[in-house]
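Appendix B, Record 12. Input sequence as logged:
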Amino acid sequence: MSLSPPKRVFFFLSGGWGPLVRTLPIVKRLADHGIVSSLAIAGLGPQLQDAGFDVIELNLLPFTAPADAAGGWWSPYHFLAHQSLESLIEQVEAYRKSIQEGQPSLVVTDINPIAALAAKSLRITHFTVSQSLFLPFQTANSSRWRLPDAVLPAINNILERYGAAPLESAAHLDMGDLTFLPSIPEFDPLGDPPSSIRYAGPILGNEFIPLPTTTGRSSSARPWILFYAGRPHDVAGPSGQTLLNIAWEPLCSVAARVTVASGGYDFKIPPGAHDRFEIVPWHILSPDHKPDLIVHHGGHGACLTAITAGIASVVVPTHAEREYNARNLAALGCGEFLLSAALDAQRLRGAIEKVIGTGDYTAACARWSRTIAERKYGGSDLVTGMIMQVL
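Logged structural output:
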C-alpha cells in the first residue's frame, strides 16, 4: 500500500522575530497533527534551519529605501509604490515558483505583500495573519494612514498579468480566504469587519524562538526592567541601535535591575555593560517570573506580550507602524510612549520612573491580562483548527 505524502503549509513572513513569535506556535500545533510546515522569512533562515525548521529559500534581491523616506512608512505595502513593475514581477515569480514546486495545500502570509500577490495570482487557498492598520476596515482614517496612490495600480497590474481578479483597494491584498488578527479588538480596532476576519487573541511563542534563553534570575532586586530594542537596523535605518544609545544613560542611572535582550542581533554594546546589566539574546516571561517594566520599540508582538503578561511598558516607537501600536497600548492605560523625534535621556528616564512609580499602569495591565484570558480567543489552536478544516 502506498502512502500519500504529508500535507504541507507554506508560511511567508515579513521580517524580524515578531512574525515568528506568532507563527511558531501554529507550526508546532500543525506538527502535532502530522502537517508539515515550511517557512520563509528574510534574514533569519540560518537560525531556523539550525533549529530544525524547514526553510524556503527564495534568493530575492534585497530592496533598499532611503531611511528618511522609509521612516515614515507605516506598512510594507509602501514598497510596492517604489519598485518598477519589472522588479515586482521578478519577485512575485520567485514566490510563485516556490509554491508551484512545493505544492502546499495552503499558503499563509504574514504582512508579506509579494507573497500575497503570488498566492492570489495562483488562486491557491490563502490565509493571512495581519494587524488592523493593514486592513481595509481600519479605524485610523486620517490621511497619515493611507497608502500611496501608486500602490493599487501596482497590485492590479500584477494580478492582471496572471489573469486574477483586481482588488478594490490596496489593503484588500492583506485579506485572505480567512484573515487572523493575533490580537484583541481594543488594541487592533476594526470597523464592522466581515466574518472572514477573526480575532485569534495574542499568539505568543517566545519559548519557540531559536535563541539561547534565560528564565533564571541572576538577581532578585526590584524593580526589574527588561529592555528590548528590536533590530539594530531596519528599513528606517539604525532604529534599534539609536534607541539603545539613547536608553543607555537612563537605564544606568535609574535605581533598578536591568536585563537587556538583544534578540541575538549584533548591537554595539558600550564598554563595561556586562558589569552593570544582564545581557541575554532572548528572555522568556512567565507568570511567576516577569519584570516590573518593559522598555521597548513598539513592535506588535512586544506590545501584546507586555499586555498579556500584565507588565507595564515604556515605548519608544522606532517607525510609524510602531507608533500606532504605542498609541493603542497607551490608550489601554498599559504604559507611556515617547516619540523618538523628541527623545532624550532625561525624558526617557522620567517616563521610566513615572511608570515604575505609578501603580495604575500595572493595575491596568493586570486587568487586561485577566480579560484576555477570560475571553478564551483560542490563539494558535483557533488558527490551527481552521487550517485543519481546509486540509
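The chain has a mean pLDDT of 92.
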